[in-house]
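[Discussion] Sanity-checking designs against the backbone

I'm trying to build intuition for which residues belong where. Below is a C-alpha cell string of 435 positions. I'd appreciate it if someone posts a full sequence so I can compare it with mine line by line.
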C-alpha cells in the first residue's frame, strides 16, 4: 500500500521521458479510452499549438488573453467557456494528465444537467460512466435507501481528462506537468497584463503574461502562495480526504448505487465506476487516521462499524488531501479571479463539489471576458457577489448537514428519524439536485 497526497505528489511532477518533454506544450488529442487499460491516449500535440514554440515551449511568445491554473472541473470548464468565446486561452496543470484525484467519483444530477446545457453531456455520460439510481446510507445497523436519478459515477481520471479534451476542442491550449505561480502585481491600473510564472520539470521558470488569470488550483491553492491575502482559513476539526480507484472482485457493491458508510470519525463512500472498478473515498478525522496507522485500517474500521463489507482492492494507491473545510475570503484582485475548491470548500458529504466548480466556471466566464476587453475594479465586487449568491449559499446547507453528522447526539436523532421515515431523505436529495 502506498499513500500519496495531491498536494505533495502533484507538486513534484514525475520525470518526463524525452518524448514527453518534446510534447510538453501539449494539446490533447481526442481523448480515447484504450480498451482494457482505462488509460487515455495523447499525441505529440505541439504541431497543433496556437502559437509558435520557443525554448520555453512557446508559452511566453505573446501574451495570452486568459491563463487558467488547474485542470480540475473548475479550470477546464472555464477554459472551455473562454476558448468558446474566442479568447486565446492557456490551461496549465501541474500533474501528469490524466491523473487520479481524491473524489467520491459521483457527478451529481445537477452537475450533469449543467454539462448538458452547455452541450457537454458526453463528458459525464460517455467514457464508461455508470448511471446512478440509488444512495444507500449505512450507520451502525441502520440503513436508509434513497432513489437517485440523473447522476453518473465516473473516475476523476476519466471525467477530468474528458473535460480537458472539451476545452482543447473549443480552442484552448493545454499544458500539463507545469506548475504555475501568480506573480504579485504592483498594480499599475493602466497595465494590460498580469504575470504568471510557469515551471515545467527540467526547465527554467518562465513568466507569461495574460489579460486575465483564473485560479482553479483546488484545495492546495499553491499558485497564490506569493499573495498572502488569498490564504484560506481552515475550519477547526476539518477532516481530510482519502481515496483510491482500484480493481476489486466483490459483488457487495452493485453498480449504480452509492454506498455511504457513516461513523463518528468520518465517512466512506464506495461506488462502481467505469470498467467495473471501485472508487473508494473518505472524509476522516486526522487524529483517527493517525491512531489507525494508515488509510486502509481507518477505512476498514468505518466500513465495519457501518456493517459494510470491506472490499479487497488490488494494490491500492491511496491519495490524501489537505484539511477539507476552508474558506478563502478574497476571491478576486486586479485581473485575477479565484474559483472552485480554491475559493473554499465544505467537506464532501453531499457530493456537490463538482457542481459548485462547474457553476463557478460558467459564472466567471463573462466577467473574465469583460476583464480581457477592459479591466474594471467593479469586477472584483461583482465576482464576490456572484460567488456568494451561487455557491456560498449552497455550501451553507452542506455545512449544516456535516455539523449535525459530527455531533453524536444530533446524528443519532437524525438517523433514527430517517430510518423510521426514509421518505424524509427525499426532500434533502431534491434540494441537492435543484438546479
Ligand atoms: C473525499 C472526497 C470526496 C468527494 N466526492 C465528491 C463527489 O462524489 N462528487 C462531487 O461532485 N464532488 C466530490 N468531491 C469534491 C470535488 O472533488 C471537488 O470539489 C472538485 O474536484 C473541485 O474541482 P476544482 O476544479 O476546483 O479543483 P480540483 O479538482 O482539485 O483541480 C485542481 C487542479 O489544479 C492543479 N494544480 C494545483 N496547484 C497547481 C499549480 N500551482 N499549477 C498548476 N496546476 C495546479 C491540481 O493538480 C488539480 O488538477 C469530493 C472531495 C473529496 C475530498
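Best answer:
Here's mine. Compare freely.
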Amino acid at each position: 500500500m502506498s499513500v500519496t497526497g495531491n498536494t505533495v505528489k502533484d507538486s513534484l511532477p514525475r520525470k518526463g521521458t524525452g518524448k514527453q518533454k518534446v510534447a510538453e506544450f501539449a494539446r490533447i488529442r481526442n481523448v480515447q479510452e484504450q480498451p482494457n487499460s482505462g488509460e487515455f491516449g495523447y499525441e505529440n500535440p505541439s504541431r497543433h499549438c496556437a502559437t509558435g514554440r520557443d525554448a520555453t515551449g512557446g508559452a511566453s511568445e505573446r501574451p495570452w488573453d486568459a491563463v487558467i491554473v488547474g485542470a480540475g472541473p473548475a479550470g477546464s470548464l472555464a477554459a472551455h467557456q473562454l476558448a468558446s468565446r474566442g479568447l486565446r486561452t492557456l490551461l496549465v496543470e501541474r500533474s501528469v494528465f490524466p491523473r487520479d484525484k481524491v473524489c467520491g467519483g459521483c457527478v451529481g444530477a445537477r452537475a450533469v444537467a449543467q454539462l448538458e446545457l452547455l452541450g457537454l453531456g458526453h463528458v459525464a455520460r460517455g467514457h464508461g460512466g455508470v448511471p446512478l439510481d440509488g444512495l444507500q446510507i449505512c450507520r451502525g445497523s441502520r440503513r436508509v435507501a434513497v432513489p437517485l436519478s440523473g447522476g453518473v459515477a465516473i473516475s476523476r481520471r476519466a471525467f477530468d481528462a474528458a473535460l480537458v479534451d472539451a476545452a482543447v476542442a473549443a480552442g484552448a491550449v493545454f499544458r500539463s506537468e507545469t506548475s504555475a505561480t501568480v506573480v504579485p502585481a504592483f498594480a499599475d491600473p493602466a497595465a494590460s497584463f498580469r504575470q504568471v510564472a510557469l515551471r515545467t520539470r527540467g526547465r527554467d521558470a518562465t513568466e507569461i503574461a495574460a489579460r486575465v488569470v483564473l485560479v482553479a488550483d483546488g484545495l492546495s491553492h499553491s499558485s497564490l502562495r506569493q499573495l498572502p491575502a488569498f490564504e484560506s482559513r481552515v475550519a477547526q476539526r476539518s477532516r481530510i480526504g482519502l481515496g483510491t480507484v482500484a480493481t476489486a472482485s466483490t459483488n457487495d457493491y452493485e453498480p449504480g448505487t452509492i454506498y455511504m458508510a457513516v461513523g463518528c470519525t468520518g465517512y466512506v463512500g464506495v461506488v462502481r465506476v467505469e470498467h467495473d472498478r471501485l472508487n473508494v473515498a473518505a472524509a476522516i478525522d486526522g487524529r483517527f487516521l493517525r491512531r489507525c496507522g494508515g488509510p486502509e485500517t481507518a477505512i476498514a474500521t468505518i466500513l465495519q462499524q457501518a456493517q459494510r463489507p470491506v472490499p479487497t482492492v488490488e494494490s491500492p494507491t491511496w491519495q490524501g488531501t489537505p484539511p477539507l473545510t476552508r474558506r478563502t475570503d478574497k476571491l478576486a484582485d486586479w485581473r485575477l479571479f479565484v474559483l472552485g475548491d480554491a475559493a473554499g470548500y465544505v467537506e464532501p458529504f453531499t457530493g456537490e463539489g463538482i457542481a459548485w466548480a462547474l457553476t463557478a466556471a460558467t459564472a466567471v466566464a463573462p466577467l473574465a471576458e469583460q476583464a480581457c476587453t477592459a479591466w474594471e475594479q467593479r469586477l472584483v465586487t461583482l465576482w464576490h457577489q456572484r460567488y456568494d449568491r451561487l455557491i456560498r449559499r449552497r455550501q451553507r446547507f452542506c455545512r449544516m448537514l456535516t455539523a449535525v453528522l459530527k455531533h453524536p447526539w444530533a446524528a443519532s436523532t437524525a438517523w433514527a428519524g430517517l430510518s423510521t421515515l426514509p421518505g424524509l431523505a427525499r426532500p434533502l436529495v431534491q434540494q441537492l439536485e435543484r438546479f
